[in-house]
Amino acid sequence: MIDLASPFRRRLLRGLALLGSAAVVSGCAGAVPGSVAPAAGGFVRREVSSNGRRYAYQVFVPARTVPRPLPVVLFLHGSGERGDDGEAQTRAGLGPYVRAHAADFPALVVFPQSPEGASWEGDTATMALATLDAATAEFDGDRSRTSLTGMSRGGYGVWSLALREPARFAALVPVCGGITAPGTRPDLDTLYVESTHASADPFAAAARGLRDIPSWVFHGARDDVVPPEQSRRMVAALQREGADVRYTEFADANHNSWDAAYAAPGLWDWLLRQRR
Asked: Is residue 245 part of a domain?
């Protein structure tokens, strides 16, 4: 029997991925038949078992010429990409950017998919972290260079997951996210970071928990779904804590600030330099 935590198991998974095998190793994420990691870099589909159910997720695996171990980025999508098809989470936000730069994008990127009606809290957060663990082990990811990004509902998730595991992430890039309910629509009244929700000042509480993690925050000045005040208040709270925080607000952007954010000059050089 293979020891699932052993170096042998990790070498076996990496070898299978490089060969394009559609193998399943008991107790870990299994490949879906036909998914191959292209030599030039591309997406593979995987599944993970978490909370008693199976979830499909995607992993972008860089070209084989990129030195290993790989920096890792966990991406949390927004409301519109929720479901169980295992594909939609790559079609908006970071996925299109990575796909357009597949030949030379130098990081392993993990794309979990939230079920319908859920936020990146509780069991959904546990599942996202399980996909991160599985992909990091299979594709030789570097745990010391693991970053977290997300957009909209996933931007809220960035703050939430980082508060849950503050020692896990080397950098945070929330895009059009927030801490408290945005107050723009009744269906968003339950969108907030649960761990700080009961605090007298949720922004200050979040900043205290995250002050040791470098962050680069993005938002659109015309956002009428999640107002930019959410990011402005969080950045100000982090600054009061002496955190290493950057803020970019796009003057002409509404809620879709993610296309501009992921193409922002200097973002990837900065992000991939960060290390725990």
From this structure: yes
pLDDT digits (tens, 9 = 90+) for 116-162: 999 999 999 999 999 999 999 999 999 999 999 999 999 999 999 99
> Residues 108, 72: contact at Cβ < 8 Å?
yes
| CATH code of the domain covering residue 87 | 3.40.50.1820
Residue 15 lies in a domain: yes
Residue 1 lies in a domain: no
Could you give the CA distance from residue 253 to residue 274 in angstroms, rounded to a whole number? 27
> Could you give the C-alpha distances from 270 to 55, 256, 267, in angstroms and in order?
31, 22, 5
Terminal Cα distance for the chain, rounded? 34
- The neighbouring-strand residues paired with 216 are 246
Q: Is residue 2 part of a domain?
A: no
Number of domains in the chain: 1
pLDDT digits (tens, 9 = 90+) for 63-99: 999 999 999 999 999 999 999 999 999 999 999 999 9
Distance in angstroms (rounded) separating the CA atoms of residues 110 and 135: 7
Taking the model in full, what pTM does it have? 0.88
Q: Give me the domain span that covers residue 58.
A: 7-273
Spatial distance between the Cα atoms of 238 and 214, rounded to a whole number of angstroms: 10
Token digits for 32?
């879906």
